[in-house]
Each structure stands twice: as structure tokens, then as C-alpha cells.
């Protein structure tokens, strides 16, 4: 058994339009690099080798909190030292906190002979997500652990994740450089939903899952719409309507807000279309005078994995 492992833990899209807190998709890139080393010193020590000034106190760091949860279930493990190099910018809406939390627990589990199941790793990592956003949601954690396309069927009383393969897809994400905190963008959400809207929404969720399972891109495209969460968050995401219009004109299948924003994602059949869609969405933010980054990449079939000892 090695004493130290390096894990790559991927960015993820959560919600996928209509599937608030339920649906998720793993991306090939960007990813966080997380080195986990066993230590004879009890507890967890975190070091960040990136420019983002994230907290290093394990009680306030997503990876630290996730590892403390794992240590509670494996007291014989004693302690871990963790070095995190974030490839995913915090607050970008592509599962930055989930990637670090998942990378840490996948690394620790490898050092413990993989004694925990993926479902248990989701449970530990979700403790970190609760610190980051104030809510125990697993829609970024699940695809970061399992890869592909995931459905969080339940988080209580027990975690129940359905891990599915995704058809070949290329994702274009535009990340405008504005801050939208997940905790704030959850505060604007309605507490109650009219039955009529709820019916349309769960019809779309069913259509989207069926579209993924049958690689029916047209069905995916017309099922992504979110009638409940996106309208409430729209004022927080400048350029969303224009970015969607131009992305669809450039050939995207469809898309929406990535997680709680501010990023916007679009699904595409080919790399060339995804590149064109990324450029088209970028032009909207150039016109608005807002700096942005564009990521283009394929969906990842695998979740976080050990890449070297
Ligand atoms: N499902 C979450 C939300 C994802 O939309 O608030 C945020 O990380």
C-alpha cells in the first residue's frame, strides 16, 4: 500500500437545467490535483498550492471537512496531509468545491485499501459541500465520484445515487468573471412551486434521463428547460438569454446555468460545434464588458482517480 497518492478530480455540471440538486455530469477538464499522504499525526492538515487563498483550517476547508468525516468512520487511519492544486477556479459553478472534497476522500480511500464504497465516499464528501454552500447536496459530488451522468435519487435517509453512462457529448462552458455565491443563489429560490410548473419540470427530468440513455440528442435538447430555478436566478446571471440564443444558433443541443452559476453550459454533439458555441457565448460577454473564460471538453466517463503514487 503506498503512503501517498495523487488524485485528479474533475469539474462537474450540476442541475443540467431541469434537474435541480439531482442531475450531474462529469467533465474531462478542468480538474483539481489532490495529493493525500498518510500521517502518524492525528487529524488533517491542508496546504493549497494555488493562488486562491482558500481556508486551510480543516474545519473550514471542503477537503478537510470531508476527510474529518472519513476519519470518524476509520479512526485507525490516524491522520492525513493534503496538498491541493486547484485547476478549477472557486466560485465558477463547475463543481470546484466538490472536486477538492472528492479528490481528498478518493485519495484517502486508496491509501486505506479502498475499504469504503463510492456511495460512502459521496456521503463523506457531501459534508464538505455543506460547508461550502450551506446545503447537503450531492449533484456535483456524485458525478465527481462516479463519472458520467448521475441521478441523486435521495440523500436522506440514505444516499441513493444512480450512475449512468452518458452518450458522447462535448460541453462548452463560459465563466463570466463575476461572483455568485451558491449560498446567495439558493436564497433567491422559491419555497413552494405551483403544481403546474412542477409537472412540466419532472416531465423534462424524465425526458432528459431517457434522452441520455437512448442517445437521443433532440430529446435531450428539448428536455433541458428549467421552469423553476432558472427564472429565479436569471437576474444574477447577466447575458444568459443572449448566450443561449447565440449558442443554439451556433449548433448547441441546449444548456442553461451551470450549477448555481455564474457559468453557463451548453451540450454539443461534436468538438467543432462546442468550440464554435464557446466562441459565440464569449462574444456576448465581450459586448457586455465582462471578462470571461471558456472551457471546452468532452464528458468524462470516469470520476476522480488515482493517477500516481
Ligand atoms: N444544485 C446546486 C444549486 C449546485 O443549484 O444550488 C450548486 O453547486
Automatic annotation (TrEMBL):
One of its GO terms (molecular function) is homoserine kinase activity. Pathway: Amino-acid biosynthesis; L-threonine biosynthesis; L-threonine from L-aspartate: step 4/5. Its EC number is 2.7.1.39. It is an enzyme of class 2 (transferase). It is found in: Cytoplasm. Residues 66-148 form the GHMP kinase N-terminal domain. It catalyses: L-homoserine + ATP = O-phospho-L-homoserine + ADP + H(+). Residues 211-285 form the GHMP kinase C-terminal domain. Keywords: Amino-acid biosynthesis, ATP-binding, Cytoplasm, Kinase, Nucleotide-binding, Threonine biosynthesis, Transferase. Gene3D superfamilies: 3.30.230.10, GHMP kinase, C-terminal domain (3.30.70.890). It holds the Pfam family GHMP_kinases_C. Belongs to the GHMP kinase family. Homoserine kinase subfamily. NCBIfam families: PRK01212.1-4, thrB. Catalyzes the ATP-dependent phosphorylation of L-homoserine to L-homoserine phosphate. This is Homoserine kinase. It comes from Hymenobacter armeniacus.
Amino acid at each position: 500500500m503506498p503512503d501517498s497518492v495523487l488524485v485528479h478530480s474533475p469539474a462537474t455540471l450540476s442541475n443540467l437545467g431541469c434537474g435541480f440538486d439531482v442531475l450531474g455530469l462529469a467533465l474531462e477538464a478542468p480538474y483539481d490535483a489532490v495529493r493525500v499522504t498518510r500521517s502518524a499525526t492525528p487529524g488533517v492538515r491542508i496546504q493549497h498550492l494555488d493562488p486562491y487563498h482558500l481556508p486551510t483550517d480543516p474545519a473550514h476547508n471542503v477537503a478537510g471537512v470531508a476527510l474529518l468525516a472519513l476519519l470518524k468512520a476509520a479512526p485507525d487511519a490516524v491522520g492525513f496531509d493534503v496538498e491541493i492544486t486547484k485547476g478549477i477556479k472557486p466560485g465558477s459553478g463547475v463543481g470546484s468545491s466538490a472536486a477538492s472534497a472528492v479528490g481528498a476522500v478518493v485519495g484517502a480511500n486508496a491509501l486505506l485499501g479502498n475499504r469504503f464504497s463510492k456511495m460512502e465516499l459521496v456521503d463523506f464528501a457531501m459534508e464538505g459541500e455543506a460547508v461550502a454552500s450551506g446545503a447537503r447536496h450531492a449533484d456535483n459530488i456524485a458525478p465527481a465520484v462516479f463519472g458520467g451522468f448521475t441521478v441523486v435519487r435521495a440523500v436522506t435517509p440514505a444516499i441513493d445515487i444512480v450512475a449512468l453512462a452518458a452518450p458522447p457529448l462535448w460541453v462548452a462552458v463560459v465563466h463570466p468573471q463575476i461572483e455568485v455565491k451558491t449560498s446567495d443563489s439558493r436564497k433567491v429560490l422559491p419555497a413552494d412551486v405551483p403544481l403546474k410548473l412542477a409537472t412540466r419540470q419532472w416531465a423534462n427530468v424524465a425526458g432528459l434521463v431517457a434522452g441520455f440513455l437512448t442517445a437521443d440528442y433532440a430529446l435531450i435538447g428539448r428536455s433541458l428547460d428549467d421552469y423553476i430555478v432558472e427564472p429565479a436566478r436569471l437576474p444574477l446571471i447577466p447575458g444568459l438569454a443572449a448566450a443561449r440564443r447565440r449558442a443554439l444558433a451556433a449548433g448547441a443541443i441546449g444548456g442553461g446555468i451551470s450549477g448555481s452559476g455564474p457559468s453557463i453550459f451548453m451540450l454539443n454533439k461534436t468538438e467543432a460545434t462546442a468550440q464554435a458555441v464557446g466562441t459565440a457565448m464569449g462574444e456576448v460577454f465581450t459586448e457586455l464588458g465582462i471578462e470571461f473564460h471558456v472551457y471546452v471538453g468532452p464528458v468524462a466517463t470516469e470520476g476522480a482517480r488515482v493517477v500516481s503514487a
